[in-house]
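Good morning C.,

I know you're traveling, so I'll keep this short. The sequence:
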Amino acid sequence: MKKILSRAILLFLFFSFEFSLVVFSNNELLNKNCSLDTVIQKLGFCEEKQKSSFKRLCSCAGVELPDNFDTKLLLELVMKTQRAFTNRKDKQERWEITPLDWMKNNPQQYLQDIKTLGFTDDVLPKSKKYGAVCILGAVNSTMKYRMKFIEKLVDSGFEVSRIFLLSGERYVSHVDGSDEEILGICQKFNVSKENLTEAHLIQNIFDDSILSKNYKSILIDTPSYNGSRPTTKTTVKDFCKWVKENNFEDDVLFVSSQPNIFYQESIISKVLNDEDLKIKFEVVGPKTGSLDIQTLVGAMGSYLWAIMPKIISEFGFDIKSPEEVKMFKTLYGCQL
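The tokens, ready to paste straight into the viewer:
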């Protein structure tokens, strides 16, 4: 009887110890997965100097970074960086934003930090051949810059089968060029200045480029919706319609430009996933020449906003509490 009792006690102690190890290991894993260091790495900032730059920018902007994150704190990080970095109201264009006071304190250090994080330099294609190139819409001068980027790649031996122009019903404004240039484009397309859109501009840029000699463009002209102009999300969704209708399966190269490459890559990845498309893609583009802190830090804020739902999902976190659901809806304008 004593032997049986002793064995029972030993078995109890053994399984208790094993259970404790499992619980401890799971807690360690949970703590590791939602630590500040892990969150920063999930953002793609893996080098120590990048982590330091991210922390410094947050500190200077007054964005507190806790040692560990749960769902609520991750959503709070997005809300805080939207206010301190992006500083953009609904339907406000990037060029209409006024820089916040903190951005004026140490601009040279901020520029170096943004460069360290990868928001300023060229991002080049990994391959030499793609089934399609999609040039993303923007203001007139930026679209010209992106077109020149592709021209240089093609001139260096880069191969592409199709060129798509992703744009839409954003009406032209003063940021798109001089009256003389705009009126010339109006005459070309036989439209009034009030009806001239970004789609006309990008088509005109392609027509004037060296690319037009060897390629025909496919224009994705996305309409506005409920008073909101087309975005990266809506133009890429319309591109996905073409992909499905034409059974297209080749690799795609999206052309953006710094400092918006990370942001647009996150948006494109989400759209392709939502559309259940398995095509391989990259987002590339030329370096930025901007020294405007608001533009550069704002792009980082937009990237944080775009990538956070994916990070929350990869951590295995749920958005359940009424407060978390409300925060998510405020940030992303939709129910879960």
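Safe travels,
E.
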